[in-house]
DNA sequence: ATGTCCATGGCACATGGA
């Protein structure tokens, strides 16, 4: 079972690129972020034609998350994080596919920091951590997949010193990620590549792709009962190098059948 | 600070968010 996360940065603007990647990569489940499309503008018919059932939570202009399943329909278990009915951002979807509970998340960016956007990011993560703990307590096999907008360690940044004060890398958010790990989750890509510099995002600015000035922002975290099923994983870097690409590359894992 | 994308409103290109 191949599970991918991909910040598409505009699902309609990059629909052709998404369909091309789906055809060549054949993921079983895809978590998409930054749809930048309202609920009624999600390209469900085109994805259905490509063989993918979908659920999505759109939003005008910004944010937006979706989950696709190959030759199946995700069985939705939750939309939106619990804990704040006033939070209207579309950043969280959760569904079961083929016996695995999968969360699709798009964490707030948080810049500029300090400031209200950074406070929102930290508050959002407090709710996320509380919910992640509840998911672990169910004993279900769970994958938390998405754009975390956090580089967990220096190994996840092309130039750590330049990012120390950024909302994606400040001590407060790295501590949040460490607390998540302490709950018992496994960072799948880091487990597969413990020493390697691996990136999932390259800024559009300053020729970041050409210089390989990347960041690792997109993560798939596994509940303890899934770690033994982790067969492999990677980042489809070549997708980032194409014309009209998203600034993120698809990131994926392969789980064995039970 | 800079840089480059997306979507929006409205029909040219400025703006916000990332």
Automatic annotation (TrEMBL):
The record marks 248 as: Interaction with DNA substrate. Mg(2+) binds at residues 7, 34, 147, 149, 247-248. One of its GO terms (molecular function) is double-stranded DNA 3'-5' DNA exonuclease activity. Its cofactor is Mg(2+); Mn(2+). InterPro entries: AP_endonuc_1, AP_endonuclease_F1_BS, AP_endonuclease_F1_CS, Endo/exonu/phosph_ase_sf, Endo/exonuclease/phosphatase, ExoIII-like. Residues 4-248 form the Endonuclease/exonuclease/phosphatase domain. Coiled coil: none annotated. The record marks 149 as: Transition state stabilizer. GO terms for biological process: DNA repair. The active site is at 106, 147 (proton donor/acceptor), 248 (proton acceptor). Probably binds two magnesium or manganese ions per subunit. Pfam families: Exo_endo_phos (PF03372). Its EC number is 3.1.11.2. Keywords: Hydrolase, Magnesium, Manganese, Metal-binding. The record marks 218 as: Important for catalytic activity. CDD domains: ExoIII-like_AP-endo. It comes from the Bacteria. Signal peptide: none annotated. The keyword Manganese applies. Belongs to the DNA repair enzymes AP/ExoA family. This is Exodeoxyribonuclease III. It comes from Rhizobium deserti.
């Amino acid at each position: 079972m191949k599970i991918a996360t991909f910040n598409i940065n505009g699902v309609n603007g990059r629909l052709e690129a998404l369909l091309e990647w789906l055809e060549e990569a054949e993921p079983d489940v895809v978590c998409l972020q930054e749809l930048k499309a309202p609920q009624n503008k999600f390209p469900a018919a085109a994805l259905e034609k490509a063989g993918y059932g979908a659920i999505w939570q759109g939003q005008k202009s910004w944010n937006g998350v979706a989950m696709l399943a190959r030759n199946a329909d995700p069985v939705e278990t939750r939309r939106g994080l619990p804990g704040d009915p006033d939070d209207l951002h579309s950043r969280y979807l959760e569904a079961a596919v083929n016996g695995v509970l999968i969360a699709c998340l798009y964490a707030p960016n948080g810049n500029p920091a300090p400031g209200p956007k950074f406070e929102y990011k930290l508050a959002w993560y407090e709710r996320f951590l509380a919910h992640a703990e509840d998911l672990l307590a169910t004993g279900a096999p769970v994958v938390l997949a998405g754009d975390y907008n956090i580089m967990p360690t220096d190994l996840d940044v092309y130039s750590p010193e330049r990012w120390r004060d950024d909302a994606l890398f400040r001590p407060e958010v790295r501590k949040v990620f460490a607390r998540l790990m302490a709950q018992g989750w496994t960072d799948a890509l880091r487990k597969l590549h413990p020493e390697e510099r691996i990136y999932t995002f390259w800024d559009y600015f300053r020729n970041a792709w050409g210089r390989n000035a990347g960041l690792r922002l997109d993560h798939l975290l596994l509940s303890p009962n899934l770690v033994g099923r982790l067969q492999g994983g990677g980042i489809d870097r070549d997708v980032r190098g194409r014309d009209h690409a998203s600034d993120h590359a698809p990131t994926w894992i392969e789980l064995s059948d039970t």
